[in-house]
Specification:
about 210 residues; mainly alpha; minor pseudopilin epsh fold; three-stranded antiparallel sheet; disordered N terminus; Fe/Mn_Superoxide_Dismutase; manganese ion binding; Mn/Fe_SOD_C; metal-binding; iron
Length: about 210
């Protein structure tokens, strides 16, 4: 019961955070849709970004507009009713924005090994190596830095909940919802996950780790 209460309030905090912003926008990508081939086809990336993520953005802005109106009217019941939709779409927007930053074509560093001063040693210490331990574990969800700890961790969340709700600093997110791979891989999620590593930008992950530790 306590866990459910904490989770509910965490979602409320996400909604409250986004209610302070004028609107959400779809982030521009640092690469073209075709630049991530052959991990997935251009059309898959285009639909994922311009349709699926855009829908989350649209739904978030609609929910926030209704929430702001209810707040202005002092309609507490409506505010509470809208918090779930606001938090869910905000979390989806946050997670997808991280996902796009975690990717890069091979020509820009995608598919490389862990780099930097901190990331390789952190992965070795926690998982016994990148290929055998970390890569297989990360197929389950997101990796983050626990607060106050000099290590990295793999963490899974329900639905679209961001790992920050669990107190972790997000480092790497891999989208494993079916909309991320159904055009190219149908129901073969393991094949999608094997190939997504060809475009994961470990330089970006290393930079996020250094920033979090600083």
């Amino acid at each position: 019961m306590a866990d459910g209460f904490e989770a509910a309030w965490a979602r409320v905090r996400v909604a409250a955070q986004w209610s302070q912003t004028a609107s959400a926008t779809l982030p521009d990508l640092d690469y073209g849709y075709d630049a991530l081939e052959p991990s997935s086809a251009r059309e898959s990336w285009r639909l994922h970004h311009s349709k699926h993520h855009q829908t989350y953005v649209n739904n978030l802005n609609a929910a926030l507009e209704k929430y702001t109106d209810a707040e202005a009217r002092g309609d507490v019941a409506a505010m509470i009713a809208l918090q779930g939709a606001s938090a869910s779409t905000a979390a989806a927007h946050i997670n997808h924005s991280l996902f796009w930053k975690n990717l890069a074509p091979a020509s820009a560093g995608g598919g490389g090994a862990p780099m930097g001063e901190s990331l390789p040693s952190a992965i070795d210490a926690e998982f016994g190596g990148f290929r055998d331990g970390c890569r297989s574990g990360l197929r389950l969800g997101l990796a983050g830095l626990p607060p106050g700890k000099d290590t990295v961790a793999i963490h899974t969340t329900q639905n679209q909940d961001p790992v920050s709700m669990s107190g972790l600093v997000p480092l790497l997110g891999v989208d494993v919802w079916e909309h991320a791979y159904y055009l190219d891989y149908k129901n073969a999620r393991p094949e999608y996950l094997k190939n997504i590593w060809k475009v994961v930008d470990m330089g970006e992950v290393a930079a996020r780790l250094d920033q979090a530790r600083a």
